[in-house]
Amino acid sequence: MDFNHYYARHQMALMLAATAATSGERAIHVASATGYAEKIRGERGRRSTGGPGLLRTEPFSC
C-alpha cells in the first residue's frame, strides 16, 4: 500500500469539503476523507504490530 496515495486523497477530500457548495456535498467529501483516514489508521496499526511480511525493528536497541 502506498501511504502517499491515501494521504493525497484524504487531503483532496478535505479541500473539496471545505469548498463544497452544499451541505450534502460537504458530507460526501467528509465521509470520503474519514474513509481514507480509517484505511491509513488500519494500515499503520498493522505495520506497527509487525504483520505478515514485515520486519519489526527496535530503533534504539544495540
Describe this structure in words.
Residues 43-62 are annotated as: Disordered. This protein is mostly helical. It has one domain (3-48). 68% of the residues lie in helices and 0% in strands. Helix 1 (3-18) packs antiparallel against helix 2.
How do the strands and helices of this protein lay out in sequence?
Elements: H1 3-18, H2 23-48
Quick recap of the structure?
This protein is mainly alpha-helical and 62 residues long. It contains 2 helices and no strands. It has helices at 3-18, 23-48.
Features:
2 helices, mainly alpha, single chain, 62 residues, elongated
Average pLDDT rating: 84
Structural category is mainly alpha
Number of self-contained structural domains = 1
User: What is the overall number of helices?
Assistant: 2
Low-confidence stretches: none
Please count the beta strands (DSSP E, at least 2 residues each).
Answer: 0
* SSE succession: HH
What integer value in Å does the Rg equal? 16 Å
Largest sheet: none
**Secondary structure: helix percent:** 55-70%
Q: Tell the overall outline.
A: elongated
Q: Please report which band the strand proportion falls in: under 5%, 5-15%, 15-25%, 25-35%, 35-45% or over 45%.
A: under 5%
- Termini distance? 30 Å
